[in-house]
Amino acid sequence: MNYCSRCGAPVSLLIPSGDNRERHVCGQCGTIHYQNPKVVVGCIPEWEDRILLCRRAIQPRLGLWTLPAGFMERGETTEDGAARETLEEANARVRVGRLYSLFSLPHLDQVYMLFRARLLDLDFHPGEESLEVRLFTEAEIPWETLAFPTIRETLRLYFRDREGMYSGEIVREWGDAPRVRVIIHEGGRDDEHPL
Amino acid sequence: MNYCSRCGAPVSLLIPSGDNRERHVCGQCGTIHYQNPKVVVGCIPEWEDRILLCRRAIQPRLGLWTLPAGFMERGETTEDGAARETLEEANARVRVGRLYSLFSLPHLDQVYMLFRARLLDLDFHPGEESLEVRLFTEAEIPWETLAFPTIRETLRLYFRDREGMYSGEIVREWGDAPRVRVIIHEGGRDDEHPL
Q: What is the model's pLDDT at position B184?
């Protein structure tokens, strides 16, 4: 951020009075431009013992499989957003149920919320952002070609315990081979950081 | 938003190619400036049969009681943010547990996430944003002077069922007397919009 989106003057990074973090502050009109994490909302669309996945037609992770999910938009609820993304990516209609997984990704400034959802019919087909959309049983899940760690972890948890609700974090670790570390906060399935 | 925060040129509201919503797009460098809801994270800090509330020293709702909560910051998890807000507003140390309530406020473009949390000691005192911090039993909760509908609804649910997890939405309704309508998505405690 270089310029004030309100008046166009240059901004500076400084700690405003009463705050304890650096913010971009306009030198002319004084507007403080807060930047906050974004919410990604999505569904686990269920049909009997199968769930719906989409193969991505866009970057990142083009060609890999994911649950339908995307950035929450202004003016909607988390559940509305999850249903909208499912409609956009898979042309699938769902009744959104309860929150299943909540993951923080502090290195990306994102919070993922994935909801259980019931498919209302089988009349789905790929949206513009998908190459392919299909139902998978647990045995058919393409574990090696899933697009994101949040999706892999959510599915891994889901097939062990659909009734629970899980929260956790996915941390990027740097080293010879950068990787992500997954920490599940409860449910007792990960002892890295139990709560 | 009037100017591009990257290059300082004027922005226009238009629907980018491949999108279906109006965005602020820079006429010079082409940057698309997405705007998304913000996350508010907070705690229900527990000590035996009492919970901690803070009386607000700042606007809005100065002088009214609230659970410690505030905007999630970049680089942190939802639980980290909830603990940080509790430390900032009440100088109270907590062990954050699981998510208790999730409320969407589409008219404010906010998502509230309130976590159960255990106070680690009784050595708390008001932070800069609080006039007063104290523990309340259920009978002592100042229902008439709570600051926000999300807080009132969370406490109302909490004292009926601490073990559940609730999601819902709070909708502003306009009329002779503007008011908010609370819709609980599950738990069977509100029949306006059961899921």
A: 82
Please give the residue of chain A at the shortest CA–CA distance from B10: A8
Q: Which residues contact B153 (CB under 8 A, 6 or more apart)?
A: B101, B103, B168, B170, B182, B184
Ordered alpha helix ranges (H), chain A: 78-90, 149-158
Q: CA-to-CA distance for A26 and A15, rounded, in angstroms?
A: 12
pLDDT of residue A158: 96
Mean confidence (pLDDT) of chain B? 92
* Each residue's pLDDT tens digit, B140-170: 999 999 999 999 999 999 999 999 899 999 9
User: DSSP letters of A55-66?
Assistant: EESSSSSTT-EE
Strand partners, A182: A170
Does the pLDDT value for residue A179 go beyond 60? yes
Average pLDDT over residues B106-133: 97
B70: closest chain A residue by CA:
A36
- Segment holding A97, helix H or strand E: strand A94-105
Confidence at residue B16, expressed as pLDDT on a 0 to 100 scale: 95
Q: What is the tens place of the pLDDT at every residue in A36-59? A: 999 999 999 999 999 999 999 999
A195: chain B residues, CB-CB within 8 Å:
95-98
A4-19 pLDDT per residue, tens: 999 999 999 999 998 9
Task: Assess whether the region B1-35 and the region B38-194 belong to the same CATH fold.
Answer: no
**Superfamily of chain region B38-194:** Nucleoside Triphosphate Pyrophosphohydrolase (3.90.79.10)
Q: Which residues contact A104 (CB under 8 A, 6 or more apart)?
A: A37, A110, A111, A112, A168, A169, A170, B76, B77, B78, B79, B80
Q: B104 vs A33: CB contact, 8 Å cut-off?
A: no
Query: Pick from A5, A39, A74: which is nearest to B5 by CB?
Result: A5
Which residues in chain A (147-166) have CB-CB distances under 8 A to chain B? 165
Domain ranges in chain A? 1-35, 38-194
Residue B4 has its nearest CB partner, among A3, A96, A113, at: A3
Look at domain A1-35 and name its CATH class: mainly beta
Cα separation, A68 vs A72, whole angstroms? 12
pTM, whole model, 2 decimals?
0.93
Which residue in B56, B103, B167 has the most chain A C-beta atoms within 10 A of its own C-beta, making it the best mutation to test that interface? B167
